[in-house]
């Protein structure tokens, strides 16, 4: 059975949060909602560390709350090789501290030989920390399709990497559910899950929409039952991270946000 995780990126400074997240409120709210796992991101952790606290202290608090952190965001494969690998090492350090299974990354380069090698280098760093690199295909990047992401994963090796499948990018990108159903389960890392008020046209600002206007599963127009069926077809039963990036919903506060996320996502994965 799939395991639900709450993705808290909408409360990250990178997503536009004006105030640092209150971790006591976050952990209590996520656990009370029903989740047994939440994701963390490098930007939120940096803000936490700047307050004089350590990642080890936060990891201890999460363990005390009986919460896992299977998903760590995120690294970027970009033109600057040194910066790419340094960023991967920082994420790997956090992965090792929290016992995360996956480091989520985006790629800003075409999937040529240099890009494939650089992604494989990041995957090697994460493997040493006990986890895998998960590459996200996004319609507004050179890695826009499932096929693009698979190219990187096959080069790095499925034992060290996998494709991150986000419902938002499936429905608002060039992919189809049939293509999703053709993704070998051994190449699939995990899933991110959300909805959107409308299907976007080719001229839409997909990057902005993805970062600001997602809605809870079932509150939009995505065929999420079809999405689940396609994943069942390949035999997926792993991690499902509920990722709803929307500053208006974040204003509800973490407890109410977590409650709505659990209640809206759980029927699809029960």
Describe the protein in words.
The protein has 270 residues and is an alpha/beta fold. 45% of the residues lie in helices and 16% in strands. An 8-stranded parallel sheet has the order 1-8-7-6-5-4-3-2. The chain is globular. Helix 1 packs parallel to helix 12 (254-269), helix 4 (81-98) packs parallel to helix 5 and helix 5 (113-128) packs across helix 6 (146-156).
Return the average pLDDT rounded to an integer: 95
Helix and strand run: EHEHHEHEHEHEHHEHHEHH
Low-confidence stretches: none
The quaternary structure here is single chain
Q: Using only CA atoms, what is the Rg?
A: 17 Å
DSSP E strands, number? 8
Shape: globular
Structural class based on helices, strands and sheet pairing = alpha/beta
Number of helices: 12
**What percent of residues are in strands?**
15-25%
The major sheet is characterized as: 8 strands, parallel
Considering DSSP H and I runs of 4 or more, what fraction of the residues is helical?
Answer: 40-55%
- From the N-terminal CA to the C-terminal CA, the straight-line distance is 8 Å
Strand order of the largest sheet: 1-8-7-6-5-4-3-2
Which terms summarize this structure?
16% strand, 12 helices
Chain-wise SSE layout:
Blueprint: E1 3-7, H1 23-33, E2 40-41, H2 42-50, H3 55-64, E3 71-77, H4 81-98, E4 102-107, H5 113-128, E5 132-136, H6 146-156, E6 161-166, H7 167-171, H8 177-181, E7 188-193, H9 206-210, H10 224-234, E8 239-243, H11 247-250, H12 254-269
Parallel strand pairs: 1-8, 2-3, 3-4, 4-5, 5-6, 6-7, 7-8
